[in-house]
Specification:
The complex is a heterodimer of chains A (297) and B (318). By secondary structure, chain A is mainly α. Chain A has two domains: 122 residues, no CATH class; 147 residues, MetI-like (MetI-like fold, Orthogonal Bundle). Helices cover 73% and strands 0% of the residues of chain A. Chain B is mainly alpha-helical and 318 residues long. Chain B has two domains: 72 residues, no CATH class; 224 residues, Orthogonal Bundle (MetI-like fold), CATH 1.10.3720. In chain B, 79% of the residues lie in helices and 0% in strands. Chain B is globular, with a radius of gyration of 24 Å. Classes of the chains: A mainly alpha (297), B mainly alpha (318).
Chain lengths: 297, 318
């Protein structure tokens, strides 16, 4: 009877689990704010090309640096382009690149971490030394070097960001695996004669998944910060692609006359980063993981 | 105890050694070497040959690594390609300027972070906590270049209180530098303080919930005496390591902030040398920044070790 209940609880569908987590997340004020901002930005990224009132690359010297008006809601920039159009389009590249980058980071970081946690010994020592060494190179220097030698195309940026932000996940996944591996159910799975693959897939991954996912969600916001810093420094996407980091760095020099051209992308980027951060935080709390004591490495 | 310290220092050196290999291999494996990337379209014939000879790129990679590493240990990083002067001389004043910036931010940031963290933890979920925590979340999540840009817009352009952009030569005296660095210091300190305050908060909350604090409450120890005698010493120890990691992580943010304010420090040199494709300087910078990171962490480890009697007998935690 009791065993039967436990069995049923285990078999809840993935969808039911997910909706439960989302409901828990939305029950806190910070969670609901974060989720709504994130959902708003994702919807905006999908529909913005269809609702943009102007052409994002239409240059018109007669319309230079116009203050916000009924025609140009957020004014125009130094080339006479509509700031509103460029702002609502500005999140698309950043969201796409960092989303896929985080997936790559999760995959390789998580798998390598689980592997290291499992095998332990010499291999683990060597890999962790190398991970430590990578951690001690400032991310910005490494990213700038990669980008300046390989270019700034999406095909370079996604794996480069994914690689660089995955090294922290290695540590988290390894620590979580270490915690799990000494537990009785692993020992009994070994005793039942399960293969290594089956133990990893059925016993370890379900138990370390939460910690890795939370870390990945947090990486997403840092990666967005890193990506937009690169754009800001002129090493990200190339003009005339609308991108917040690039827009801020272009409009910065003229902000004493045309503050609107810098405020709009600032609001866009800050709200997205805060949204992802709050969501990741609420996600962690909904899964019962406290990550506020961790350093952002 | 002594053994532990020596072990930590040794591990730090191993990490640096791997970093030097990574940067060396990285610049080697990625397409283009120092000469072709630097000379770009003129990279053929005599000029390329001359550049190879000047940098010694015509000998095998491992030989170059060994001689580079041996010189680097003695503080000689070779010549920068763009400025044609010893990298050591380029770096000197830059390091000084960045140190001024970073240490000012740390000295302002740490006390404020401690006070804010303790207040938010003691008044957890009450008005002071909610108000301060909201501000810290904003301050730590917003990218450095945005908070720096906003600071310039509000303080320098709208209020006209301070200069928004640093226009001083690299080797300026400290007093001349002072009014110029207020805004950059505030920009860096803001993010650092927010991060540290959050960590102090959760550390204090953890200790407040522990059994010995509950015991002290039951015994009737006065509240503030309990906070200062039992809670804070135990809460701040583990925070040291995390704070060190945060400071090290913020090195990247310092780079961006320096660019925004046009501050002549290491950060701007990173951008300049990468824009100029000056790989020898980039290699030197990677090693220097990594050494800063490693030594901050090492310092924090040693500090924790010395302040925590429990760790003296135990194996040091990873």
């Amino acid at each position: 009877m009791k065993l039967d209940n436990i069995y049923k609880e285990e078999k809840k569908s993935a969808f039911a689990k997910l909706s439960e987590i989302i409901i828990t997340m939305a029950s806190r004020p910070s969670g609901i704010i974060g989720l709504s901002i994130l959902v708003f930005h994702i919807i905006l990224a999908f529909i913005s090309p269809y609702i943009a009132p102007h052409d994002f690359k239409a240059i018109d010297p007669t319309l230079m640096l116009q203050a916000p008006s009924a025609e140009y809601w957020f004014g125009t920039d130094d080339l006479g382009r509509d700031v509103f159009t460029r702002t609502i389009l500005g999140g698309r590249t950043a969201l796409t690149i960092t989303f896929f980058g985080s997936l790559i980071a999760l995959l390789w970081g998580g798998l390598l971490g689980i592997f290291c946690g499992l095998v332990g010994g010499k291999i683990d020592d060597v890999v962790m030394r190398i991970v430590d060494a990578f951690l001690s190179i400032p991310w910005i220097l490494a990213m700038l070097l990669i980008v300046s030698l390989l270019g700034t195309s999406t095909e370079v940026l996604i794996p480069a960001l994914g690689f660089f932000y995955g090294k922290g996940i290695v540590r988290v996944a390894r620590a979580a695996t270490h915690d799990v591996i000494a537990k009785d159910f692993i020992v009994s799975a070994r005793a039942r004669g399960h293969s290594n693959f089956s133990i990893i897939w059925n016993e370890i991954i379900p138990n370390v998944r939460d910690a890795i996912l939370v870390e990945g969600a947090m990486r997403w916001s840092w990666m967005l910060l890193g990506f937009s810093s690169l754009s800001f420094l002129g090493f990200g996407v190339s003009p005339p692609t609308p991108d917040w980091g690039l827009m801020i760095s272009n409009a910065r020099g003229l902000m004493s006359f045309a503050y609107w051209a810098v405020i709009a992308p600032i609001v866009g980027l800050s709200s997205l980063i805060i949204g992802i951060n709050l969501t990741a935080d609420a996600f962690a709390k909904a899964l019962g993981i406290d990550r506020s004591t961790k350093a952002p490495v | 105890m002594l053994f532990l310290i020596i072990k930590r220092i040794l591990l730090g050196f191993i990490t640096l050694f791997i970093v030097s290999i990574i940067t060396f291999v990285g610049t080697e494996v990625l397409p283009g070497d120092a000469c072709t990337t630097y000379l770009e379209r003129q990279a053929f014939g005599e000029q390329l040959e001359a550049c190879y000879r000047r940098l010694g790129l015509n000998v095998p990679a491992y030989e170059r690594y060994v001689s580079w590493a041996l010189n680097a240990i003695q503080g000689d990083f070779g010549y920068s390609l763009s400025g044609e002067m010893p990298i050591k001389e380029v770096l000197g004043p830059r390091i000084k300027n960045s140190l001024v910036l970073a240490s000012a931010a740390i000295f302002i940031g740490i006390p404020i972070a401690l006070i804010l963290g303790i207040i938010t933890a003691l008044w957890r979920d009450k008005l002071p906590d909610v108000a301060i925590s909201t501000v810290t979340i904003f301050a730590m999540t917003i990218p450095e270049f945005i908070s720096a840009t906003l600071l310039i817009l509000i303080i320098a352009i709208w209020l006209e209180w301070l200069p928004g952009i640093v226009i001083v030569p690299t080797d300026v005296s400290f007093l001349e530098l002072l009014p110029n660095i207020i805004l950059p210091v505030v920009a860096i300190a803001m993010i650092m303080t927010a991060h540290m305050a959050r960590m102090v908060r959760s550390s204090v909350i953890q200790v407040m919930a522990s059994e010995y604090v509950q015991m002290a409450i039951l015994k009737g120890v006065p509240y503030w005496k309990m906070v200062f005698k039992h809670v804070l010493p135990n809460a701040l120890l583990p925070a040291i390591n995390v704070v060190a990691l945060t400071i090290a992580w913020l090195l990247g943010g310092v780079v961006v902030t320096e660019v925004v304010f046009n501050y002549p420090g290491l950060g701007r040199l990173v951008i300049e040398s990468i824009s100029n494709r000056d790989l020898p300087t980039v290699q030197a910078l990677a090693i220097i920044l990594a050494s800063i990171y490693v030594s901050i962490n090492l310092l924090a480890d040693l500090l924790t070790l010395m302040l925590n009697p429990r760790l003296k007998t135990l194996q040091i935690r990873k």
